[in-house]
Design brief:
single chain; 355 residues; mainly alpha; name from scop; 4-stranded mixed β-sheet; 12 helices; 4 strands; 67% helix; 6% strand; elongated
Length: 355
């Protein structure tokens, strides 16, 4: 049954489903992105900060080798020496930990943005269950992660081997050379190796990010029934909405038909279109469309007009043009002034004659 339910989940998760998952702390987070940002931070530290830090540490610690007799070896002297040395080392290396911490936080934020969820810190007794832990350990996801880790080790191991193998023959030449020169050379080689690993890991991290997002979306997929139910909850039942829309249209149509007896003329197609116009020179700048319709509604407009002895004028192009370009209770546009004026003038003449 579980497999059947999973097969039926063919629909992309809705915005509401994604938002609820985010509120629960369920997000597609790739650990490899965090590892990549940490590697990038290490490259920055070694390439730009390590030389200065190494020089500062050497200056601080050299005295222990060159003049150990200068230190006072009593309780107070040892405390002062330990405090002074700790402060100097912390000042020299503290920035490293700040950069690494920022890289770790940045690796998460670049994937999730600003995010906080109380669900992540809420106590869950189920997490303490040994059986749940064993099932998770031997789950498909754990096996996939194990395979990914093994693949990463193989790829990175090959990269490290081919990068360091040419340097093995150069190592004896460093015997007797100044310490700073050896440290600088090793630093350059370390940066070179880390840049290669950084480039390789960028591909690994990108692939893992896409995989995590694919798995995340797949886990949140919905059945067509779930999408319909959610739509009903958010937007209301489509049947009820259609009925309400029909009621509103019927009310608007009744209000429109109530205006037909007040019209001065109804311009017709003569069978498919009908547009009722009213004009009051003292109050209006131009004739106003008080009703319009096609087919059955046009027929009703004509029937009401005949019942109230409103003049019907057949002019198919004008009827169609007014229907398409003018909304109800709006004045006609300037391009129709001349044609409508001739019709209204004709109607007024008929009224004067008593026809």
């Amino acid at each position: 049954m579980a497999e059947e339910d999973q097969d039926q989940k063919t629909e992309y998760p809705t915005g509401k489903r994604l938002s609820e998952a985010r509120d629960r702390g369920q997000l597609p987070i790739s650990r490899e992105i965090g590892t990549w940002t940490a590697l990038l931070a290490i490259v920055v530290v070694i390439a730009w900060l390590a030389p200065g830090m190494a020089r500062q540490l050497i200056v601080t610690l050299r005295v222990f080798l060159e003049a150990p007799q200068a230190f006072v070896i009593d309780d107070h002297g040892l405390q002062t020496l330990a405090l002074h040395t700790t402060v100097q080392v912390a000042m020299a290396t503290g920035l490293i930990f700040v950069i690494l911490a920022a890289a770790a936080i940045g690796g998460i934020m670049v994937q999730t943005g600003l995010f906080a969820s109380t669900e992540l810190i809420r106590p869950d007794i189920g997490r303490l269950s040994p059986m749940a832990g064993i099932q998770k350990l031997f789950s498909t996801g754990s096996l996939v992660e194990l395979g990914k880790s093994f693949g990463k080790l193989v790829v990175l191991g090959i990269a490290v081997f081919y990068t360091l193998w040419p340097l093995i023959g150069d190592l004896p030449g460093f015997i007797g050379r100044p310490l700073l020169d050896s440290v600088a050379f090793l630093g350059r080689q370390a940066v070179h190796l880390l840049i290669i690993m950084l480039l390789i890991y960028a591909v690994i991290a990108l692939g893992d990010l896409l995989f995590q997002r694919f798995r995340y979306i797949k886990s949140l997929r919905m059945t067509k029934s779930e999408v319909k139910d959610e739509y009903k909850q958010q937007e209301g039942d489509p049947t009820i909405k259609a009925r309400l829309r029909q009621i509103r249209m019927e009310k608007a149509r009744k209000r429109m038909m109530a205006q037909v007896p007040k019209a001065d003329v109804v311009i017709t197609n003569p069978t498919h279109y009908a547009v009722a116009l009213k004009y009051d020179g003292a109050k209006m700048g131009a004739p106003v469309v008080v009703a319009k319709g096609v087919d059955r509604i046009a027929e009703r407009i004509r029937a009401v007009a005949e019942e109230h002895k409103i003049t019907l004028v057949s002019n198919p192009p004008l009827a169609r043009g007014l229907y398409d370009s003018v909304d109800i209770d709006k004045e006609i546009p300037a391009q129709h002034y001349r044609a409508v004026a001739e019709i209204i003038s004709y109607v007024y003449k008929l009224k004067k004659k008593g026809i």
